[in-house]
Amino acid sequence: MNFRGKKTLLVLSGGVEAVEGIRIAKQMGLDVVVCDINPRAPGRALADWFICADIYNPVDVASKVLRFAKKRRIDGVITIASDAVRAVAEVAELLRLPGISRSTAFVTTDKFIMKKVLAQKGVPVPGFASVGSVDEIREKIRAFERAVIKPVDSRGARGVIRVTPQEDLEEAFSRAIRHSPSKRLIIEEWLDGAQISAEALVIRGRVYLCGIADRNYSRLKETYPYVIEDGGETPSRFSPRIDESIREVLQDTADAIEIEDGVIKADIVLREGSPVIIEVASRLSGGFFSTITIPLVYGINITGMAILLALGLKVTPPDKLRPVCYQANRFIFTGPGTVTKIIAPEVEELPDYVKHLNIGVKEGDQLEEITDHTKRRGSVLVCADSRKEAIERAELLIRKIRIEVDTAKTQTRMCRM
Ligand SMILES: Nc1ncnc2c1ncn2[C@@H]1O[C@H](COP(=O)(O)OP(=O)(O)O)[C@@H](O)[C@H]1O
Ligand SMILES: [Mg+2]
What we know:
This protein is α+β, with helices and mostly antiparallel strands.
C-alpha cells in the first residue's frame, strides 16, 4: 500500500531505535510528523515535520499537537520504541483517532494497577504487593523467598532491584524509589524460570503472535541486585512448543487490558513450563525487536501493520509463526570510568549477517556503573541459519569491540558496592 502523501502519521519518539520505524512509515508513502523533546533526535532527519515536546508528558504533547492539527490533519498516532502510550491515548482521544483508550494506557504504565487488573481477570502473574516504605517492604517480603522491588512507573529496568529478607532493604528501597516519579513501588515474588519476550498484533480483538524471543540473563549474578538483560535469541528455543500457550495468555491479557486493535508486548517467565506475565505494554517493543528482528526472522512487517491499525485501516492478520532464520543480539558491557579508547570493526567491513551494530559511547565519556538497560554501552544484532551459529556470531562480534575504560576515578565507589 502506498499512501503517496495522502495520510499523515504522528510518531512519538525520534530516538535512535525509532528511526527504522519512521523509515517504514516513509516507505509506505506516509507524511510523517515526528515528536521528540530532543531537537536533534535522529528521527527528525527523516520526518516531514517535527514537534518538540516531551512525549512522557501527555499535556505537553496534546497542546502542541492540537496547535499543529489546526493547520494540517493528522490521521493516526503511534509510538515507536518508547513507552509514551499515555500521550498516544491522549492525542487519539482529542483528535478522535483510532488507538488505545486512556484507561488501557494507564493500566499498562502502572505496574501495580496492571498486576491487579491481570490478577482479577485470572491472568497468571507473580505474587505482588504495593509498597511505599522500607517497613512495608520488610513486612511484605516475608511472603516471598526471593523478591524484586521496582517503581510502578518506570521502564528500561531502572530501579528494578532484587531483594531477600536478609539484605539491606534501606539501600534497595533508595535505589528503587529514586526512579519513581510518583514515589510508589511494587514488590513481587522473583520467578526463576526462563525469561521470554513476546509480541503480538491485536486485530478486532484477536491476538496474532508476531515473535517470541529468549532473553539472555547470563549476567544476572554479575549485575546483582540489578536485573540486566544481555540480548537474546529469536525464535525462542521453546518454540513452536509454547507458541499456543503464549498466544492464549496474551489473548487473556489483551482482553483484560481491553485492547481491540493494536499491539501488545509482554515480558514473560516460564514457571514449570507455563507462561506467567511479568509485564505487558500496549505498544511496539524497542531494542530493534519490532523494527528489525521480527521482519528478519518471521517475515512479518509488524511495524507497518501497527501503523495501518493506528490509521484505522484494514490489516490482513499474519499467519502462524514460521521462522526463516535465527537472530541473536548481545550488548556491550564495561565497568564505570572514563572511556580512553574504542576499537571496533569498520561498518563497511562487516559481513552481511550483521544487521545492526551500535556503540553508544565515545572517547572521553564518563561512564556510570550499568544499573539499568539504558546504561549498556551498545549492541550488535546478527542472523544465521542456526541458533548456535547466531550466538557464536554475536559473541564474536562483541569481543571485537573493545571499549577501554580508566576506572581509577571510580575505584572508591566500586569498592563500596
Ligand atoms: N517477578 C519477577 N520474576 C522474574 N523476573 C522478573 C520479575 N520482575 C522483573 N523481572 C525481570 O526484570 C525485567 C525488568 O522488569 P520489568 O517489570 O519488566 O520492568 P521495566 O518496565 O523496567 O522493563 C523483566 O523484564 C524481567 O526480565
Ligand atoms: Mg519490562
